[in-house]
Amino acid sequence: MDFWQRYRAIDARDTRFDGQFYTAVRTTGIYCRPSCPARTPKAENVTFYETSAAAHEAGYRACKRCLPEAVPGTPAWNLRSDIAGRAMRLINDGVINRDGVEGLAARLGYSSRQLNRILSHELGAGPLSLARASRAQTARTLLVSTTMKLADVAFAAGFSSVRQFNGTMAEVFDMTPTALRGTARHHPPAPASTSLTLALPYREPFDPGVFSFLAVRAIPGIEAGTASSYARTLRLPHGDARFSVEYAGAGNAGNRTGEYDGGPHGRPLVLTIGAVDLRDLPALLSRVRRLFDLDADPVAIDGALSADPRLSASVAAAPGIRLPGALDPQELLVRAMVGQQITVAAARTALTQLAAAGSPSAAPGDGLSRLFPSPAQIAEAGAGLLRGPQRRTESLLAVATALAEGTLDFGYGDDLPGLSAKLLPLPGVGPWTVGYTAMRVLGAPDVFLANDAAVRNGIRALAAEFRDPGGSADPGGVALRAGAAPATGTRESGGAPSSDFREASPWRSYATMHLWRAAAAVPRTSTARRGADSERSSAMKETVQ
């Protein structure tokens, strides 16, 4: 967006852009979110910044009226695969708090001096300033949403001392922590237990189908899910954690946390943290947000997808569909390899058997008592627990061993080419596994799994509703030729829609989610089952080789 596009957004007070950029006003010395209700400043007094850290660096303080830190993050960190985007994913995951700037730079393959220069040029602030802004945002959330002691808030947010915490909050918000706590819309009651309850901001619309996606894949004892809730145990750098997320839904307009509810209709996503080492709290918050894709811009995504006539009805039925993320990159790769040529139900059965290798959780509760096995545990005990083709078992054990020994290392800081270079040489890993892992670990928005059986079934399901003006189904038969060579014509050039949905770029990962949803809604007749089995067999030959 150029200056005038952004200026028009703040003049319209468009909430869709909250968190995507920040508006600093020279005459007041403050910065705001785009939807700030204050009078629109004169254009000559306005400077736009990509991050709140850049506004801090330029000497501005946060607006007390619109609370620019209480917004969803920018979707750019998933959309961008450059160094800046990769660095922001790792900073949000708490890498600087754990490993410092040197550790962040090493993960990205740069020196700390080079990284500081790149981020300062691209984002207006260096890695330390970006991490400091992230700590301030976490601290503000805890202050207004919980009754935690101020010292606990300081260390949970990643500050090294209470003095540093007090200084940062005064500099960023021009308020003491106590005064900032007093700005809460509703003061939360003292909790009856040691759990923390927070509201998760997001951009509307929000399709709760992501809960169902996670629920049907939930492993008993480790995860539990319904159509509006999800809970699980998780291994984090400093210890075990347990959390749950609940979608309050349209019938509950209350916001029991007193925090920004993410939407104008009073439908908060409520995160309850049952147990966590406070040093891991920023990482947990970041990973939960990634799991539910809460920094996405659904209006932009839906607008692009609905332009394709094959997807328009699905987008209208499920606006704001989300791309499920990954809480643990290594775990996600194992789950992808287990489920790459079998149904979701069969994969869940296999993973339930494999979960026996995991250790009991140090933070049990709510029926969740175990942790997903680590790569070392899978390498040691997986051979006796895995069922199916021997070749697939050997491939999975080889990958688990590589992860355990550190010879295979990947995560949120990778880009798609780098991830492909690391994973494709592994036995048993093919393009589908790499694409699925990129979708969920990196949040890569433009992956299309053309050889996925459920994607093909979803295309068939949507083709039944797709009509041309003359009334014939699926003009040109393009939708039914899923997996064939991509069509050369596009709708813009007068040709038929492409079979790889490239018109939906850069949002084809979300198109994949719509196709999976369409496939799941179709009853599994014997004919459909035979077709899916045939396609799965074909995909198996390609992937296992």
Structural summary, described in words:
- There is one protein chain.
- The chain has 545 residues and is of the alpha+beta class.
- Among the domains are: 3-62, DNA Methylphosphotriester Repair Domain (3-Layer(aba) Sandwich), CATH 3.40.10.10; 76-181, Homeodomain-like (Arc Repressor Mutant, subunit A); 196-294, DNA-3-methyladenine glycosylase AlkA, N-terminal domain (TATA-Binding Protein), CATH 3.30.310.20; 329-442, Endonuclease III, domain 1 (Orthogonal Bundle), CATH 1.10.340.30.
- The protein is 44% helix and 10% strand.
- The protein has 23 helices and 11 strands.
- The protein has a 5-stranded antiparallel sheet.
- A hairpin with a 3-residue loop joins β6 (223-225) and β7 (229-236).
- α4 (83-92) packs antiparallel against α5 (95-108) and α19 (416-423) crosses α20.
- It is globular.
- It starts with a helix and ends with a helix.
